[in-house]
Amino acid sequence: MVDEHRLWVLPAVTGKGAALFPELGEARRLRLITSTAFPSGILELRYAAS
Questions:
Q1: E strands in 1-50
Q2: pLDDT in tens, 1-50
Q3: Element housing 16 (H / E)
Q4: Which of 7, 22, 48, 49 has the least C-beta neighbours within 10 A?
Q5: How many domains, in total, are found in the chain?
Q6: C-beta atoms surrounding 38 within 10 Å
Q7: Cα(25)–Cα(16) distance, rounded to whole angstroms?
Q8: What are the angstrom distances between the C-alpha of 11 and each of 14, 41, 42?
Q9: Would 45 be classed as within a structural domain?
Q10: Cα separation of 24 and 46, whole Å?
């Protein structure tokens, strides 16, 4: 069981993109814990499972 997700968002456009968790099959509710913006434009987003 995962109780926290850390996502890094990079400022780039890559086309269609790919699903991060395709095996889930349904939406999960997450609560944003913290967000950090770096000078490079990268974002770190920390989410907790609700």
A1: 4-9, 30-37, 43-49
A2: 678 889 898 887 777 777 777 777 777 788 999 999 999 999 999 999 87
A3: none
A4: 22
A5: 1
A6: 9
A7: 19
A8: 10, 6, 6
A9: yes
A10: 19
30: tokens are 């997450």
What values do phi and psi take at 8, rounded to 5? Answer: -110, 125
Q: Is 41 among the domain residues?
A: yes
Give me the residues paired with residue 6 across strands: 46
pTM here is 0.68
User: Which residues have C-beta within 8 Å of that of residue 47, sequence separation ≥ 6?
Assistant: 4, 5, 6, 7, 30, 31, 32, 33
Residues 2, 47: Cα–Cα separation, whole Å: 11
Pairing type for strands 30-37 and 4-9 reads unpaired
Residues 14, 20, 15: CA angle, nearest 5 degrees:
15
